[in-house]
Design a protein that fits this description.
Blueprint (H helix, E strand, L loop, with lengths): L4 E4 L1 H9 L5 E4 L5 H14 L2 E4 L4 H7 L8 E6 L10 H6 L4 H10 L1
Parallel strand pairs: 2-3
Antiparallel strand pairs: 1-4, 2-4
Helix pairs in contact: 1-2
Length: 108
Amino acid sequence: MKSGKYTLGYKTVLKSLRSSKGKLIIIANNCPPLRKLEIEYYAMLCKVGVHHYNGNNVDLGTACGKYFRVCCLNIIDPESPPNPTEDSANFADQPKLMSAALVKAAKQ
């Protein structure tokens, strides 16, 4: 989650969906059903993809590099991964781009 723009949390995801921002919504598997339905409804209206993460909210928070639970997140602007033709030492030193990987995994 080092690059790109994203929002974490239920309220901020709904705010960004209401303003038609976002490319992909990721929801943890233990998100409450009412929240999940509301997020899916707004995502359907905005024509935004929804990915159901196989882990719980603790796992999703850890995958985002945070020390707190994350019920849902909205990827607003995923940035592309670094160019592999660059110097290999510089490429190895750069952190992994979580948002681009999550968008790629959701498209498959």
